[in-house]
Amino acid sequence: MRRSLIVGNWKLHCTVVEAIALANSIRLAVGDPGSREVVIAPPFTAIYAVRGVICGTPIGLAAQDAHWEERGAFTGAVSPGLLHDVGCRYAILGHSERREHFAETDAAVARKLRAALAAGLSPILCVGERTAERDQGRAQTVVSRQLATALAGVAPETLPMVAIAYEPVWAIGTGIAAGTDDAAAMADHIRGRLAAGWGDAAGRARILYGGSVNPGNAGDFLRQDTLDGALVGGASLNADSFAAIVKAAP
Ligand code: PGA
After folding, report:
1. Which residues form the pocket of ligand 1, taking CB atoms under 6 Å from any ligand atom?
2. Residue 53 Cα to chain centre, angstroms
3. If you take atom 6 of ligand 1, which residue's CA is the nearest one?
4. pLDDT 10s digits, 113-150
5. Which phi and psi (to 5°) does residue 68 adopt?
6. Could you tell me which of 245, 197, 239 has the C-alpha nearest to residue 22?
7. What is the CATH architecture assignment of 5-248?
8. CA atoms 85, 26, 122, 76: torsion sign
9. pTM for this one?
10. Domain range summary for the chain, segments of one domain joined by +
């Protein structure tokens, strides 16, 4: 009942020309994704150009971040409304690279999430523990805190707009993916937290896994009943790899 969602996060890669070429290759390689939802997140500067390439196809657009204010004196920020205007329907929020390199706090992620929802964007909320936190047995505690802060005040009828991406920090860009059992166990934990706070609506929110997903391991994650998709970084920069991941989803 939950459609598979595969998101390609291009991070800080691709000039406009490169982005157009990659989006076009992805469009051709993915073809008809059937019931799966496929979304790509180019850098801000390429979003408008990529929109032209995927317009009229089943591929959707995400922003890699969004500010919490809609307009005003916020030099360098991009608001959810402007992203919606340029064709985005999703926004990746709270990615661990934002938390790590841009000092983004849980409270900031919460403001962004509410602003994104208000502008009609579906947030892809990233949560996940660092190595030390896992080693100390605190992975679930950390993820619970990130969820509780980011989702505070979200109404039950709105919760299904949010996809949660479980991305253990140590698995991102390292080639060392989480074990599928560990990822499934954390997805269960996340679903449990959502159910405790939002009741039945929890069953309609999608939970993704992210962190070194590639064509070789994607099927292992995507076959887990508790996982509804993947957030893909490095492997989304290659059209054939990304398409293979899409096709591994049910
Ligand atoms: P990766 O990145 O697939 O390159 O590990 C995932 C992410 O950062 O979302």
Report:
1. 9, 167, 172-173, 210-213, 231-235
2. 21
3. 233
4. 999 999 999 999 999 999 999 999 999 999 999 999 99
5. -95, -15
6. 239
7. Alpha-Beta Barrel (3.20)
8. negative
9. 0.97
10. 5-248
